[in-house]
Amino acid sequence: MIKFLDLQAINHRLHSxxxxxxxxxxxxxxxxxxxxxxxxxxxxxQYCNTEFCIGVGNGLDALTLILxxxxxxxxxxxxxxxxxxIATVLAITATGATPIFVEPGAHTFNIDIxxxxxxxxxxxxxxxxxxxxxxAVDMDKLSVIADKHKIKIIEDAAQAHxxxxxxxxVGSLGDAAAFSFYPGKNLGALGDGGxxxxxxxxxxxxxxALRNYGSIQKYVHxxxxxxxxxxxxxASLLRLKLPLLDSDNDTRREIAKxxxxxxKNPHIILPQMPRDEKSHVWHLxxxxxxxxxxxxxxMKLCGVETLVHYPIAPHNQRAYSEFxxxxxxxxxxxxxxxxxxxxxxxxxxxxxxxxxxxxxxYKSPNLEKNNxxxxxxx
Length: 378
Ligand SMILES: *Cc1c(COP(=O)(O)O)cnc(C)c1O
Hints:
Blueprint: H1 7-12, H2 15-28, H3 35-48, E1 52-56, H4 59-69, E2 77-81, H5 86-94, E3 98-102, E4 124-130, H6 139-149, E5 152-156, E6 164-165, E7 168-169, E8 176-180, E9 194-198, H7 201-210, E10 215-217, E11 220-221, H8 232-241, H9 245-262, E12 268-269, E13 285-289, H10 292-301, H11 329-337, E14 338-341, H12 349-361, H13 365-370, H14 372-377
Parallel strand pairs: 2-3, 2-4, 4-5, 5-8
Antiparallel strand pairs: 1-9, 6-7, 8-9, 10-11, 12-13, 13-14
Helix pairs in contact: 2-8, 3-8, 4-5, 4-7, 9-12
This protein binds pyridoxal-5'-phosphate.
């Protein structure tokens, strides 16, 4: 079986270095917000080319603390893609603000920038964009809109560590960005972790306090904060993994290119290759298939594990019954058709080629019954 993602193999590359780090950590005895966290913060802000990085407990908290840091609250509106992982939306509703959903474009999975401006009202405080599946959003157009209306741009960069737009890394493209270091992300810890990057010194000071009970100085509390700190042990492991990120992303690009050039099957719609290959880090390689269950079943029988990101859009979730009257046809059809093929820096070329071969042999019985044209062609 080709696993969707082999985390053991990903981390095995640094097995002895990690053991050594853990040994040092154990002997040093500083477990919370100590030198590994501040070194990682320095190194990651340098990597993203931002002035500040603040390590937090996870990606959802990174998003929520940015919104709270900008004082976004009940009565405010935040524009967000309707097609995203639910955490993006949970962060908005956690502050009491209202998410205003905008559909993706028909040919990319990212938010349709042309449909943002019509949603801006005098309540709009921010646009929370998501670099979905690892593809950086086109920020030039977006910055013009945000500047004109004096609203913040916040990046959900949880899937896009290392992606670039015009030579600038995600994390530095808006007013502030949220990263997740969940184990499966392009830069993943061995547990939960997250970070905020920004050039805004006022925001940086505030979220640094918010993550730590609202305090900078022990027992002096400026805000009603939370406990959401990046773990010292996770920071030390992330410092080992950060130097591999660029070459890992290159491997992902290579695999995506092989899939795109070699999967040729009328039943499988491939993702669009970006014009600038640096803008995509292929956290996920997502195709669209009309009879998804059947395709996944077929791939499984061939020994290939596939997953779905994501089967139900946030506004269609039971948790968000207040949005049940919203109907977003592009998002909803994507949710029904998307399938993610394995992509990771530890896959072998045999595995990649095998996946190409079986994908090319896939024939949909249902579709062939209904589509005589295809049958007569093949
Ligand atoms: C993973 C992810 C998050 C949440 O990160 P956690 O660390 O799991 O809380 C938020 N947004 C997107 C797009 C994600 O993929």
